[in-house]
Description:
This protein is mainly beta. Helices cover 7% and strands 37% of the residues.
Amino acid sequence: xxxxxxxxxxxxxxxxxxxxxxxxxxxxxxxxxxxxxxxxxxxxxxxxxxxxxxxxxxxxxxxxxxxxxxxxxxxxxxxxxxxxxxxxxxxxxxxxxxxxxxxxxxxxxxxxxxxxxxxxxxxxxxxxxxxxxxxxxxxxxxxxxxxxxxxxxxxxxxxxxxxxxxxxxxxxxxxxx
Length: 177
């Protein structure tokens, strides 16, 4: 079956930065709905017309993927506002930030704790791959027709590579997070 809109593809991939450093490897196939919210537009465009077994190489610039790095999404918050067991790498929703955090921190962003110091905590609302051009080597493992339920949801339901709107983008724009 040829890949078209409203079909489900099972993909494996290797994701690298432009220096060749491996950022992610997906060895086991994961299903994505083409024409839904599961994939970035450049990936969907590259998949069109291919069949199972196809190997595709593409480079995606930051503005087509995870956006440019925004230093306005870095916040230093008092350490005393957070639990003692807080760890670097923890991700939390802006709406779940402790009372007393900067009121300018957008509530609809996801924040990663990047550094913990005795007096403050650094929160980063950027996607971990923001500002990075990525090279992706995809393999199409299988292609099938999407079910009516998948089409209605706009997703194959894996939630693996979910796209959600971000606060700094105009309505209708989407990015991975």
